[in-house]
Sequence to fold (232 residues):
Amino acid sequence: MQVQAIIPAAGAGLHQGESSAKVLWPVGGRSLIRRTLEAFDRCPEITGITLLISQRNLLEVTRELESDGWRKAIDIRLGGERRQDSVRIGLESLRSDPPDFVIVHDGARPLVSDGLIHSGLEAARQHGAATAAIPVHHTYKHVDSSGFVHGTVERSDLMQVQTPQVFRYDWLLEAHAKAVRNGIVVEDDAELIEKLGKPVKVFAGSNINIKVATHEDALMVAALVAADPLCV
Fold:
């Protein structure tokens, strides 16, 4: 069975004077993107990796990943303006030799574990599509434009979605093609599958599967790695 990892990281660019791309921030002695890719490189069920990166970060990231130590070929491509566009570009690059499944994972989630990847693949094999998710523990409020509360969100059936998300390749390709035709914009690929009328199975995510969006997030990930180098 062929399983291609698609890692969108084109949106992780420079913000507010940052001196380097977010994907190159150091996390426990290695760059964020290297840590993320290493998780998929060491996974025996993954047969290939496609990384989508922005034009302004392309040279730095390519240099960062230059190494003879990778087990799998990493196909580095220019991503799109939105995460959704980057995933579509990755999918279309596989048309000539399509895999059975694709596993989509945020480039900015460096603590994805072997167990999470395996659980996602098992769920997708059975159901065709699957996403990692964790229960919602915080209280959320509906707030109007003036800053006043207009109600509390019932959270008993809410979950916070993460990546990895795993899909049959033909399903996700069809879902993205439909999105282009109909001008559909979504936050994650699972929603596109939902719009096809296909089931999406939830499997247990992880509280340490943090998406790094700020330096504080990077420090938290580095602290987790320092406390337990085997946490992934």
